[in-house]
Amino acid sequence: MPNPKRRHSKARRDRRRAHDHLRQPVLSECPHCHEMKLPHQACPHCGYYRDREAILVEEQA
Amino acid sequence: MPTPTKGPRLGGGPAHERLMLANLAASLFEHKRITTTVTKAKRLKPYAERLVTFAKRGDLASRRRVLGLISNKGIVHELFTDIAQAVENRDGGYTRITKIGNRKGDNAPMAVIELVLEPVSAKQAVVAEATSAAKRDADKKEAAAAAPVAEEAPETEAAEAPAEEAPAAEEAATEEAPTAEEAAEAPAAEEKDAK
To answer: Which of B38, B96, B98 best probes binding to A when mutated, by most A CB atoms within 10 angstroms?
Structure first.
């Protein structure tokens, strides 16, 4: 079985991981309840999408 | 070469896909609004709208075509009476998909697909009216001599259409359509001759 010939240094490892990061999701403000929501999706806070187009049955916890 | 299906394939095979689309459409017509994955909703939209178009046509042949896909007679009846009547003035776009975020469990993007049953808004009606008026004006200018005929035609047609559709739909429900359709079509044919 082929095996690594040499151990990789910490610097090499860390450089490889330089681009490993999570991205913040893009959010837009809900025009109805002014919470942040994902664009092109119904607002999970108030259940509204596009003015009065209430789509979700949203029960208060 | 057959036209490829628009959108991703569903299910384990063609039969599975056919059944799934038919069942989704039946559920949509039964409940008017269903929650499903975005992928299924997108495949369902053209399928369901085509069935609504059949329903708006309302004759026995189209009813049988729909019954070949959705076997529940109650749902098909509802489609041909209530739903077809509710979307009478709407030119396509009978369904609406709203994305509602990802499902807990498998993180699948979910959507609500619903029938657009509210009447066409006043603004849309005004726009439709304006386009038809403009068209009428254009027709008038083109055929100044034949103007009265052209003006009368849309009105008589409009008056004729509901009267014609209502008995046809009812008779089809009781499976007596052939006679009813002949009766309904006879005046229509006369209409055309008169023009």
So the answer is: B98
The CATH number assigned to the domain with range B14-119 reads: 3.90.1030.10
Sequence-ordered alpha helix ranges (H) in chain B: 14-31, 38-57, 60-67, 73-78, 84-86, 122-142, 147-173, 177-194
**Where in chain B are the domains?**
14-119, 123-194
Q: Around Cβ B175, how many Cβ atoms within 10 Å?
A: 9
Q: What is the ipTM for the molecules in this complex?
A: 0.75
- Identify the closest residue of chain A to B109 by CA–CA distance: A41
Q: Mutating which of A40, A55, A56, A57 best tests the B interface, going by the most B Cβ atoms within 10 A?
A: A55
Confidence band for B145, pLDDT divided at 50, 70 and 90: low
